[in-house]
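Inputs:
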Amino acid sequence: MTPNRRQLIGGMGAAAAAAAFPMPALAQAKPKVVVVGGGPGGATVAKYVAKDGGIDVTLVEPTRRFTTCFHSNLYLGGFRTWESITHSYDKIVKAYGIKHVRQMAAAVDREKRTVRLAGGTVLPYDRLVIAPGIDIKYDSVPGYSEAASKRMPHAWQAGPQTRLLRRQLNALADGATVVMIAPPNPYRCPPGPYERASMMAHVLKAKGHKKSRIVIIDPKDSFSKQALFMEGWQKHYPGMIEWQDPKVHGGIKGVDAKTMTVKTDLSEYKAQLVNVIPAQMAGKIARDAGLANQSGFCPIKPESMMSAVDANIYVVGDACIPGDMPKSGFSANSQAKVAAMMIRGELANSRTFPARYTNTCWSLIETDDAVKIGGRYEAKDGKIAAVETFVSKTGESAELRKQTQQENMGWYAGIIADIFT
Amino acid sequence: MIRAMLCLAACITVILWPWKPSPALTAGDRALGEYLSSECVTCHQLSGHYQGIPPIVGWPEDSFIQIMDEYRSKRRSNPVMQTIAGKFSNEEIAALAAYFGSLKARH
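Outputs:
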């Protein structure tokens, strides 16, 4: 990288911004950035845009405290308390002068560049960041619905669903049948369902269950870290977890929450716990604003995280189409920093550099036995493309796996400090 | 403890083998380093707190550069760090060393 290239990129950003967008009505008014959604994507953008000053940042997020979906499987397994995965916005609000508006965003008017809140207030913006995470496609599993999720939790958005799943898991008696319906690609946290099955098995094994079993009915032919999970399940939970791909189950016919049954083309399961993880799509506000394509997710420009359909809007986190990156909290945080840099380049004339992204996903299989997968990514061939990737190996030493779990916990502490302080 | 060992390693290096970095490696671009650092601070806390992942603030620049170079050439293990370091140029590593070296741990 040479200074010339950097200056050129910075210069292009500023020139494009000047040409494409009128200045704020009042010359002395600070530019306004509105961020919709306070997860690892939105909260990180809010902090990184606000921290160097000169820009008004409003974070639209109804909750006072945010529970991370990452590490919620560790809560399920009893490795974490609810408190330890729940974090307040107070520190970033105070430290960086972010306005936290505790409401849902109801609609975006892209022509007028405003966001209307559920309470009716209208917020003008110079740049809008959309980071609503995922919505669940309840109807992607026949018989499933939001009402059915009260008995058959998805628990794929951290909150009451996660706590319900833990209560149900802890209440199981030996001999229980647990069925998980895994989601089709693309979805939040690719190794997540399989880490969850591991945590369920950990709880049942710790309670002394000998006859309980966990059946994973998967619409996919393969899954993230498959060899590592299969090895770990064989080692720690022999005979307890059965993974079925479409060749085995023949297709998911449907679920019935009243009778707690799951039907596949080949079998019918009467279960004591059913965890349905349906297909997913970008949060409603993103789809309603016309930012998503037919996939249900939002295309972005890989060099900036700018929406592919609106130059005043950036989309980060699980709602976007992240190319080779997985949908993860780590990815959202990484994308948020690129978006924040580009927004500051446009509105505050700050230096900008070529976008680069990173991700690592750790998964816990059993106490002190964690694995990881990750990579580095850059804008290439019109998408966020993997430059280099790695994954843990089968047969690694117990010592290395234990270190990997320590790294997992260290990463969590690190990313929480990065997002929330 | 870890930092003490790193300092010791750096001192030994300096005493035994006076290292002469190229000009590009001495003039770390702190602004570039601050931007690139956003990749690091997802895991390594800016406060210098140690909670399972080693802190990297306040290191001597030359030992920071040396360690990153060892990850880059895969002489040091840990695939996360090898992947992160792998694509950094000398200029970028020097920039990171300048930025993190300029920070103090807040305890």
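Remarks. Residues 52 and 113 of chain A are 24 Å apart (CA to CA). Residues 1-19 of chain A have pLDDT under 50 and may be disordered.
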